[in-house]
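Dear colleagues,

As part of the handover before I leave the project, I'm documenting each prediction I ran so the next person doesn't have to rerun anything. This entry is a single chain, and its sequence is reproduced below.
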Amino acid sequence: MMESVVEGFFLILQWQNILAIVLGLYMGCIIGALPGLSPSMAIAIAAPFTFGLPPIPAISFLLGIYKGGVYGGSISAILLCTPGTPEAAATLLDGYPLAKQGRARQALDAALYASIAGDLIGTVVLVAAAPFIAHYALKIGPVEMVPLIFLAMTVIITTLGAEKNKGFIAAAIGAMIALMGVDPIAGSTRFVFGNYELSEGVSLIPFLVGLFAVPEVINAIVASRERRRLKAAADTIEVHGERLPFSALLRHWKTIVQSALVGSGIGALPGLGSTAAAFTCYGLAKKTSKNPEKFGTGSLEGVLACETGNNGTCGPALIPLLTLGIPGSSTTAVLYGTLLIYGIVPGPKIFIENGPTIYAIFIGLVIGGILLYPIGTSIIKYAAKAIYKVNQGVLFASILLLCFTGSYAVGNSMTDVYCMAAAGIFAYGMRYFGLPLGPALIAFILEPIIEKSFRQALMISNNDMGTFFSSSIAIGLWLLTLSLLLYGPVKALLSKKGQAQARQ
């Protein structure tokens, strides 16, 4: 292990890799600060253009976009009461009131410091937990992989709350699209509708680009009135006032550590993500604060809790991806596709087969967390004036051009471009009907894995379905999945019985 760590250290400390991290952070901060543009979309668009690079700078660049994007959403949340990303929705509760009080600079500094603290603590959790989990994950074979993927999808869908039925429909759609192409066992084509150009199936990267980028462009065209409002608001914003002293952070160190650890725990669970972490940490900080009445009126502690929590998820979100090969969010699903392109197969053997590369990426995450301070500081001063005066027409036209160019560059095939465009229109329709895109994407990625594992297990056991209950790990995973499925209905039934008894 130490040999891989040392080799990874020397691999990452090359100027090309550091430059890739810096460029990724800058791009992520700017993309995150622009409402309507998300880190997932930015990574999906940028991924095809990194294919000519070595794996370490390419992955470091994409992770820089991820980290910068999560922080960048706080800029618009604080200055314009419009979160640039869903992760920053909780930040505006106290960030915008602080800006209205003339303390915009302090709120932005608090968000930056909290983002760095949460990011670094989350990375430490990733480095400590990932090799340990991967070691025990080596015991998982095809029999255990089937209930494991069912459990992951159950967690992802049940976290949608009242929208879980729509999440199930979205996951089913994503799995159906993944079935297109050649049957991996029988060798026959399926769902190609006579078009043999689809015999290789829908490529992951064009599907990602269409799923996340094209709907944003369409929404931007539709929401022209909102863009004019943001531009008018940017003309009246001044980032001024005193800087936030470091002593203010020390006064709230308990909130920062608490939020970072809670955010790390939530980030490691598939389906919850940084938005849930931000609101959870905000509520927990309010309960444990000495001044809970200040929350919602302009509390620095509230901003610190939100930004520490949502950035604390960045590192741990990679744990299920790297150790089990299961992406737990849209962003990690995009990173999954990039790793596969470079021949790095996420799963229990990743530290055995690609140890130095993975540790180089881990060290790059730490370097990125440190570099976020000078990069964030340089962006803060000009954020309101520069970012929101970008010509929106030129911006989204350029994004659409990159979508087509990047999709074609994957395989030099117009079929990929057509698939990207079809996925984009399809995704816009899903949004119109309120279907979440995350479950569709994750099911699209996991369907080939579960199909392969299911068939391998049956071939080994001579078509005995009982093989999926033949190990203690598999039985435990099935029971956990069943308990999650029954939790909601049983809770609702008990609640109705309690209400009926109370009326009597």
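The chain has a mean pLDDT of 79. The beta strands are 181-182, 189-190.

All the best with the project,
I.
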